[in-house]
Specification:
Blueprint (H helix, E strand, L loop, with lengths): L3 H16 L10 E6 L6 H15 L5 E6 L8 H8 L6 E6 H9 L10 E16 L7 H10 L6 E3 L5 H13 L8 E3 L3 H9 L5 E5 H9 L3 E6 L23 E8 L5 H15 L2 H9 L3 E6 H21 L4
Parallel strand pairs: 1-2, 1-3, 5-6, 5-7
Antiparallel strand pairs: 3-9, 4-7, 4-8, 4-9, 4-10
Helix pairs in contact: 4-11
Keywords: Signal
Protein name: C4-dicarboxylate ABC transporter substrate-binding protein
Family: Belongs to the UPF0065 (bug) family.
């Protein structure tokens, strides 16, 4: 029999071995998903879809989703960098919005401090108005901007994100100074949607998927999308068709914390790649009007670096950085 001291020592050693074992030692690991945004928005939808598909494909045995919203992800990012460091079974959902918010907010932390795993989806933006709006087209919206931009408040995600960038590009094309715009940022898509449905703003800009149900229900009117061509199943012109020479592509992906091992990074990439190639993921992307644009590892790292430089130039040009 073990005496008390030997029992406690062996138990502690066993716990330590379990706790510090490689995160992917099991065939179906448990994972943690960090969402640096409030529930209801695009990142939250992405996280919960990832969770759903990983479970349905039996690629994980369980998961936990944590939401920390604010300022385009720049409130949550320091927590992920500092408190989640080295946790190889963890993923953070982020994307173009965070890149812009980091620059616009002059944030202390940036995406060079985390570990790029995979770019997953791309989504074109949608310009919408409440059903009772006098704006029947994108041209009506632009005409109102030209007349008095302060009377055309537009709801979207956090300052400096893709929604804000698109609004600025539309205004620039129309000859309206970005400094004169009335942009109303929200931490989550649910809050922006509530402002739209409550007629508290004149229009809204976000990924089409965040507005699709309300568009189909007739509560919102879709004026245009920011794609390069019309999209199947979406009854709306592109901004370019409306004579507004603007297109924008919003991407979302996942990152591991800093300090993860090479083995855990490789295992997480493999896990996400397997999920992204599944029929279940393809179905979810189609249902949500997401375009699959899988890119992993070093190629994804280079993409993030290049996109950060591109967005920085856009924000500076628009007076947002």
């Amino acid at each position: 029999m073990l005496n008390r001291r030997r029992f406690l020592t062996s138990t502690a050693a066993g716990f330590a071995a379990l706790h510090f074992a490689p995160a992917f030692a099991q065939d179906t690991p448990q994972i943690q998903i960090f969402v640096p945004a409030a529930p209801g928005g695009g990142w939250d939808q992405t996280a919960r879809t990832i969770d759903q598909v990983l479970r349905s494909e039996k690629l994980i045995s369980g998961s936990q989703i944590t939401n920390v919203g604010g300022a385009g992800g720049t409130v949550g990012l320091p927590q992920f960098v500092n408190q989640w460091k080295g946790k190889g079974n963890s993923l953070m959902v982020a994307g173009m919005v965070m890149v812009g918010a980091i620059i616009a907010n002059k944030a202390a932390n940036n995406l060079t401090e985390v570990t790029p795993i995979a770019r997953l989806t791309g989504e074109f933006e949608a310009l919408v108005v409440p059903a009772a709006s006098p704006f029947k087209s994108a041209n009506d919206f632009v005409a109102a901007l030209k007349e008095d931009p302060t009377k055309v408040p537009v709801a979207g995600g956090s300052a400096g994100g893709s929604d804000h960038i698109l609004f600025g590009l539309i205004a620039k094309t129309a000859g309206v100074p970005a400094a004169n715009l009335s942009y109303v940022p929200f931490a989550g898509g649910g809050e922006a949607l509530s402002a739209l449905l409550g007629n508290q703003v004149a229009a809204g800009i976000s990924g089409y998927g965040e507005f699709s149900e309300q568009i189909k229900a007739g509560a919102l009117r879709l004026l245009a999308i920011s794609s390069d061509k019309r999209q199947e199943g979406i009854d709306a012109p592109t901004l370019k068709e409306a004579g507004i020479d603007v297109e924008l592509f919003n991407w979302r992906g996942v990152f591991a914390p800093p300090g993860v091992s090479d083995d855990d990074k490789a295992a997480m990439i493999k896990l996400v790649e397997t999920m992204a190639k599944s029929d279940a993921w393809a179905t979810e992307c189609k249902n949500r009007n997401w375009t699959p644009i899988l890119l992993t590892g070093d190629d994804y790292t280079k993409f993030v670096t290049d996109d950060t430089a591109r967005i920085g130039a856009i924000l500076k040009d628009l007076g947002l950085a």
